[in-house]
Amino acid sequence: MDLPNKFSSDQFCTLATLTERQICSECGRKRMFFCYDCKVYVGRVGSMAPRVELPLFVDIVKHRHELNSKSTAIHALLISPGQTRIFDKFEEVPNYALECFATENVAVLFPSKNSQSIAQFVRENGPLRRIVVLDSTWNTVGQLRNMANIAKLPMVHLRQYTTDYWRPQNGLSADHLATIEAIYYACVESQEAEREWRRTEERRRMREVEEKEKGEDGGSEEKAEEEQHRLDNLLFWCMRPDPTQLRRYQLSTAAANGVPAGVFVGGANRTRRQWRFLLLLSVLFSVTFTFGFWTFQSDGSIFSPPYHKLEQFVLVEENVSTSAWNTTAQSSTTEGPKELNGNDEGISEKMAKTNRSYENFPVNGTLSNQIQLLSVTYAENATEIAPNVSLFFAVPPRHSVADLPACADHPPGLIGPIPVWMDGPGFETLNKLYPRVRQGGHNWPDACVARHRVAIIIPYRDREAHLRIFLHNLHFLLSKQQMDYTIFVVEQATNQTFNRAKLMNVGFVEASRLYDWQCFVFHDVDLLPEDDRNLYSCPEHPRHMSVAVDKFDYTLPYAQIFGGATAMTRKQFERVNGYSNDYWGWGGEDDDISYRLAYAGFKISRYPAKIARYKMVKHEHDGMNPSNDCRWELLDKTKKRWRQDGLSNLNYTLLSTTFHRMYTNFVVDLLEDDSRKTLANERISRKLLKGC
């Protein structure tokens, strides 16, 4: 698209070849041409976009409610980075009385009864050297104008103009300019006023003859036209819409080709209002239908998530043969585990050689025919000797909770760097080293009530030596941190391609059955923490825990990494729909979950690198964990697939559950063939069953 005839900026032909969004090197999000959050160009755009030297400096003060994606202030910063500043926070705005020299004229662009034209300001005060632009709506711009550092600045206004911006501005008339247009016209008027001021000064000083004055004026007019043409590049991005947004704003072909916004803004706004009304009706209908469906078709709890497949929509009566009690499986989202009697701690899951089945349940409003009957067996599938196996998952006794104080916010006795053991003692030795760890690998402090209930989820297969090393180091650390925690080892059945992300989804669902966990830490078995101040808890935003790993010279490989060891609350994990289920083999799932966090509005939090330090246990490459050739195509479609791929369509068979002394072990079949068929149908994996 070209500029209207009254402007003459550089041609867009080279950039027109870029039709897809590219990944920002700073935040990892996909953007068209530039990232409005990080204020940088993406891909090769920076080498092709024009640069402009402005006749004055521009300071842009943004209101905190102004959306980065809607603001055009970023255009000025990208096109003239050396002369433009953007202040996103009020406290960042400088005190111009102290910052600027006495000879430097500064004004704020703000039309009011006390403002004057730029030409009048220059005639009275000399050339304008810096202009302050307020980027806000008219409802909130007064807050910016009344700031202490701006309130005493003189005010100037522009002449009357009509907007040429391609995007309609929420029902405003055509004489309301976009921020970048206001900056452009301020520069143009400042140039004109400065030339006139200099001519006047020249006449006063030189008193030259009238003919010479005319000759000089003619040359100045040619120079003025050339300077304005150079300034036209300031509107380079303003006149060129993001191709992916043209349909969103209902722009006609004429509008897309540069017809002034005043011609079509009224019709576009009417169309938008009609679509908003229809959208509101559809939302009301959807909410009403959903409310009725979950109220009358499910278990009566409309807030129950549809993917809690194990016990959400069916009650299963079990006969525990060790006593005369009949227990009923309860949803972990409604209440925590119950005691069998006043003296026992915990619940008995099942006797040996007894199976438990679950019928199909509704998923997203329809009956799923993909969920198979799940059967669970315990002691008969145990891999350890009898003393390490139990039918019993221990939980804290209820009668002690009310009698104990809460643990300290910052556990006492944390010293910083701790020893890291690279040898893996046998399970019998581990039992003796950590006698306070209860059955199932569940541990909690005895002298106080833990502030954090944490489930440690370990995706695992065929690395027993690493597991013993991991258990030795983690139980030592978490006991010092006064956590109420359990280590869950989610083991994938053999003869399948390894799927780390899906194993963690399974671990989240299965662990939630046993206890009311607040925080879930997803942890590779070969990472060992080096500092006990690295608390295994969940803050307000998802936490990337393994910031500095010895394999990477204790540096962060890239800003958006979210793998190795991570922590999320239940609500955070559910909000991003868990991990993707479709990353078979090595690579891609960490970047996918990072994208999901960004799409859900989360920021990644991290401890300083001197605290979040880890050692990685060396290991040989797993032949059943090949590099995933599909990962780039899957990552490109994350934004489209993340709400449908994850907890919402999780499908697996639980083969066994064993409560060892040091950990709880889930062995699962991830149904690889079914997932491969789905990928083939989406044309992500074109080789049926084998994948990429």
Explain what you see.
- Belongs to the glycosyltransferase 7 family.
- By secondary structure, the chain is α/β, with parallel strands linked by helices.
- Among the domains are: 15-248, no CATH class; 434-681, Alpha-Beta Complex (Spore Coat Polysaccharide Biosynthesis Protein SpsA, Chain A), CATH 3.90.550.10.
- The strands form eight sheets. Strands 16, 18, 19, 20, 21, 23, 25, 27 and 28 form a nine-stranded mixed β-sheet that branches.
- β14 and β15 (366-367) form a beta hairpin.
- α4 (118-125) packs parallel to α7 (179-206) and α7 runs antiparallel to α8 (210-231).
- The radius of gyration is 33 Å and the shape is elongated.
Give the helix/strand layout.
Elements (H helix, E strand, L loop, with lengths): L21 E2 L6 E2 L2 E2 L4 E2 L3 H4 L8 E6 L10 H7 L4 E4 L8 H4 L6 E4 L6 E2 H8 L4 E6 L5 H5 L2 H4 L3 E3 L21 H28 L3 H22 L21 H4 L4 H37 L19 E3 L6 E3 L18 E2 L13 E2 L2 E2 L21 E2 L1 E2 L4 H4 L25 H7 L8 E2 L9 E8 L3 H17 L3 E9 L7 H15 L4 E5 L3 E3 L13 E2 L3 E2 L15 E5 H6 L13 H11 L13 E4 L14 H6 L1 H4 L11 E8 L3 E6 L2 H10 L11
Parallel strand pairs: 5-6, 5-9, 7-9, 7-10, 8-10, 19-20, 19-21, 20-28, 24-26
Antiparallel strand pairs: 1-2, 3-4, 11-12, 13-17, 14-15, 16-27, 18-20, 21-25, 22-26, 23-25, 27-28
Helix pairs in contact: 4-7, 7-8
